[in-house]
Amino acid sequence: MFIVLWISISVLALAAGFVGGYFIHRRMGESRLAQAEKFAEKIVADAQREAATIKKEASVHAKEEWYKLKQNFEKETQSRRAELKDIENRQAEREKQNDRKIDIISHKEREVEARERDLVAKERVVRAKDERLTELIDEQNKKLEQIAGLTQEEAKKTLLQNLEAQARHEAAQLMKTIRDEAKESAEKEAKQIVTLAIQRYAGEHTAETTVSVVPLASDEMKGRIIGREGRNIRAFEAATGVEVLIDDTPEAIVISGFDPVRREVARIAMERLVHDGRIQPSRIEEVIEKAKGEVDRSIKEAGEALALEVGVPGLHPEVMVLLGRLKYRTSYGQNVLQHSKEVALLASTMAGELELDQALAKRAGLLHDLGKAVDHSVEGTHTQIGMDLAKRFGESAVIINAIGAHHEDIEMISPISVLIAAADAISGARPGARRESLEAYIKRLEKLEEVAYSFKGVAKAYAIQAGREVRIIVTPEEVTDTRTTEMADEVARKIEASLQYPGQIKVTVIRETRGVGYAK
Fold it and tell me: According to the model, what pLDDT value does residue 465 have?
């Protein structure tokens, strides 16, 4: 019972506790709910207030943006309106200009139309006058034909002939004037350069002989030179390669040979043999060998001295030896070594006046006759031989051309070649440079006069100034003033084609013009 009672009490207590807990929990839930509702209401109120604030701020910001956009729009609109106004003004100005141009064009069109009308009227008048003029010309031609006894074609032909002759005369006069002016200017400048070059260089004016003569103390020495049965002279000629001429010339013998070096060796050896007096084959060979050594040294020294004196560095040693050989070479009595020196210095001086390469001109002038050192033993002209030697020793193309062209055997490719040809002519043609026999001199003058006499109308011809000038006197009835200039050119061309001469030859044609009047 106690247990049941205790269980019942426990159940009742438990039930009461459950009911009480339920009510307590419900009360607490309601209280929490009321608090939550209050908190929610507060959050909503705060949110509403914040939303109102944000809305207000957004409204203010939107108004500011709208105001800014409105201002920008108004500025842009104002700018566009100004641009449109400016465009309208320019367009209006263009329209005004176009209107003015249209007015001007309209005015000009009216003027052109008026002029066209005037031209049409004038053309009708001119056409009528032209027709009348043609009729008058025909009538005049018929009258002239009747008066002159010539047809129109014949008169035209005569007129054309007269016009042609007159045109030829005027053209010849103009050509003469232009040529004289150009020639005067060119000759003046060329004379200044050549004169200056010659004045700066003063060379010897003596021509050398090409014959080697050995003097003898007496004519008895000739027999000793010949030797028993001629053995001495044969040994001497065999060893030297020259020919010994023993003639009737008293106390002298002549040594002849194409090789100038061999001739010099023979001269030195013969002089020593004559001076020593011991003339026999063994002694002859010994003396000749010593003479060869001396001549070789002399050749080398002469070449080196010449290159040093002229101032041409860098020459090949063999070239200097060849230059030294020119010491014993002559051309028309002129020593070729001295001639080469003259040409080098003259060409250098003229190159300086013309602002060309002086060193190159000097080198080309020094080497221009290099071929003459061996032309007695090598086939070909001295210009071709010189070109081959220059190529072999590495000279430049300009120098090679100057060597080959200084006698106009080949075309000149540079001004240096022209200077070398001019300097060569000056050196060879100066007074006393070359020896010329009286017979050859007279013959050369006669050939010049013969060329002049070969032209029609020549009355007299004179070669003067040692053949440097030809003066021709023509018959005035056969040769006109205009023809004199043409004849001078033709004579000069014929002299160039038919004769050989150093330098240049002046051709002067003289025609006498007389004016005759009578007083009554």
Answer: 66
- Please report which helix (H) or strand (E) contains residue 464, including its range: strand 458-464
Q: What is the CA radius of gyration of the chain?
A: 61
Would you say residue 286 lies in a domain? Answer: yes
Rounded CA separation 499/491 (Å): 12
User: Using CA atoms, how far apart are residues 462 and 452, in angstroms rounded to an integer?
Assistant: 9
Q: What angle do CA 300, 304, 308 make, to 5 degrees?
A: 170
Domain assignment present for 126? no
Other beta carbons less than 10 A from residue 406's beta carbon: 27
How far apart are alpha carbons 254 and 265 in whole angstroms?
14
The amino acid sitting at 282 is S
Residues 491 and 454 in one domain: yes
Q: How many domains does the chain have?
A: 3
Same domain, 283 and 381: yes
Identify which of 488, 481, 490, 478 has the alpha carbon closest to the alpha carbon of residue 513: 481
Q: What is the mean pLDDT of each run of 10 residues along the chain (520 residues)?
A: 74 74 75 81 84 85 87 88 88 87 86 86 84 80 66 69 74 70 60 52 47 74 81 85 78 80 86 82 86 88 88 90 85 80 88 88 90 83 90 92 87 89 77 53 83 91 80 89 88 87 79 70
**Cα 215 to Cα 212: distance, rounded to the nearest angstrom:** 10
Residue 450 is part of which domain span?
Answer: 438-511
pLDDT at 398: 92
DSSP letter at 433 equals S
- CB atoms < 10 A from the CB of 224, how many? 16
Beta strands 212-215 and 252-256, pairing class: antiparallel
What's the CATH code of the domain at 501? 3.30.70.1350
Residue tagged 């006109």 (tokens)? 480
Q: Which of 361, 396, 429 is the last residue of a domain?
A: 429
Edge-to-edge order in the sheet of strand 252-256: 212-215, 252-256, 243-245
Tokens of 152: 């129109």
Give pLDDT, residue 11. Answer: 74
**DSSP strands (E only) in 285-433:** 330-331, 334-335
